[in-house]
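User: Some background: our group keeps a shared notebook of sequences we're curious about, and every so often someone picks one and asks for a predicted structure to add to the entry. Today it's my turn. The entry only has the sequence so far, pasted here. Could you supply the structure so I can complete it?
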Amino acid sequence: MTTLPEPWLARPAPPPAAAQRRFEKLWARMLTQGPRQAAHYPLTEPKWQFLCYIAENADVVLHGSPDPTIDQFRPRRAYDTLEFGNRTAIYAATDGIWPMFYAVLDRERHPMSLSNACIRIGEPGAWSEPHYFFSITAAALSQRPWRTGKVYLLPAHTFIAQPPLTVGDRLVQPAQAASEVPVRPLAKLTVTAQDFPFLDQVRGHDDKALQERAAKDPGGFPWVTGPEQS
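Assistant: Of course. Here's the predicted structure to add to the notebook entry:
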């Protein structure tokens, strides 16, 4: 299996096959309940396992937010060096763990910059398991800037997946999709910082140093080299 070296994080072990039936029953109940209230989660499996299973086996994409009251997502202007991220759109993940990071970050009380990604490497039809990277401003990280949030599950039919990228000698598939039209969620699930499986692996960066490295080497993500990294 294709793997990436540090600082990339591999997805933890998947649930046993017996959990899949429980995930499917819960998902059916969530669809029946709808998005007005967050779904009750009665399972012993961690929430990230459920969300990853649904992301890969239902026609949905996922969006994490600390806002518990979103009844419709509307396109917003985003700015990025890549064409895919430089548009007016709703952005969502095709992965179950990545949106949890956005859901549990308290950016209202703790100003910060973010550097993060979820990718698979390989080639179409033979992608690796997901790999992750999470980093925020070091000063904010020291304050433990976590809160309870929501992962929204959105219908995927208006979303277009980000095309694969060539990075060095690797082909990389980001776990990101975009919709240019408004979308109403199908369901939502409450998540806490303790539900996020990489909480203790979130890195801290120096904003200025990160910007300088990115400017010098635009293709060098995640730009972790330096003494300021934890």
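Suggested note for the entry: The mean pLDDT is 93. DSSP finds five helices and 13 strands in the chain.
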